[in-house]
Each structure stands twice: as C-alpha cells, then as structure tokens.
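User: what does the whole thing look like in 3D?
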Amino acid sequence: DQQVKQNSPSLSVQEGRISILNCDYTNSMFDYFLWYKKYPAEGPTFLISISSIKDKNEDGRFTVFLNKSAKHLSLHIVPSQPGDSAVYFCAASVVFSSGSARQLTFGSGTQLTVLP
Amino acid sequence: NAGVTQTPKFQVLKTGQSMTLQCAQDMNHNSMYWYRQDPGMGLRLIYYSASEGTTDKGEVPNGYNVSRLNKREFSLRLESAAPSQTSVYFCASNQGGGGEKLFFGSGTQLSVL
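Assistant: Here's the predicted 3D structure for the full assembly of 229 residues, as structure tokens:
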C-alpha cells in the first residue's frame, strides 16, 4: 500500500502559467515533506520542503502548501518555465524507529512539461 | 565539490552474476542510503547506514547486501542477480541526526538478462 501517492503521472502547462502538482499521504506520523526534481539521467535534486507545523513555504517561484487534515500537499510553480520540465517527486519523512536517521517515502512522480 | 559519486553508470549482468555498486560522498555526511527506482513506483529504500559502522534494512532489502566501508563510502552488492533487480539505483546521503534533505548521486542503470 503506497503511503505517498501522486495520482497524476503527467502534467502539461503553458509557459508563464501556474503549474500545480499534487500529493496525498496516508501516514499521520510523517512530519516533514519534500519535493524533488529529476532530469533524465540525473539523480533527484532537492527543491523545497515544509515542516508539518507549517502550512506554507515559499522559495522564489516555488510554493509548497500543506493541508494536514486532508493529508494533502501541493507544489505551485509560478510562472512556469520550459526549464522546469522534469519529473517531480513528492516525499514524506519520519524518523526511523531506531531514532538514528530519517526515512523518506517517495511518491511515484509527476512528469511536468512546460510548453513554450 | 563532487557531492555523491556512483560507479558504474551502466551495467548489464546475466542472471546469477554478482556485482558491487560503489558510492562515495565528500560532504562529511553521517548517513547514507541506497534506493531503487522502478517505473511507476517512485524510489524505494533498499538499505541505509545511519552512521559509520551501522547498516539497516529498508523497504526492499531482499537480494542485496551493503557495506559501510568508512564514513565516505557505502557499497551495495548483488550476490546473485535476478531479472527483478533490473532498475535504476541511487545512492544518497545526508547529515543524519534528524537532517531531512537527501543528496543523491546520478544513478546506476542496471539490467539483468
């Protein structure tokens, strides 16, 4: 059973418009959420994160919103640029039961295509 | 500053062969991780090492072994490769101790025939 779900495998947006990527989770123990961006033949790179004690975090063109009651988070990109075309992974984090490190659970990703 | 370096980038194995994927980080991170990425399934944790000298199983450890050789290096070994292990493998690291953000290598594309 997937604990982190990205239900849209792909999204196409016109350059300059807003891109909204969505993510749902089931485990209420997750206390930190991250978005990663991945280009072909490269590893994922960190984009933006949010703690469960917040409902919004903004970094330039990127904003992440967290709705804890709905167990839902979203990534907004405004304005979208062709260079934003990539796969975006949502991840949710909780400390391992051993307390020694953090476990990240990833969604299956959304391919964003920004059309010029 | 190379970050996380993985070798090799590509590998083709026959069923039953063994191999070791190498990973090294130069960020003085305490924790290191191995993930696999399969189509439609995101990244799944195979093994992790919270600190030098410790290793633990993740979500999908069967068929793999790991070695935390020192603080910089964390290797993943397939003793007897199977077609189900065809995947892209990513190594990652972070500071640990509650540090959340992972830094990833560029991946190893492995095909088992």
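In plain terms: The radius of gyration of chain A is 14 Å. The CA atoms of residues 63 and 88 of chain A lie 14 Å apart.
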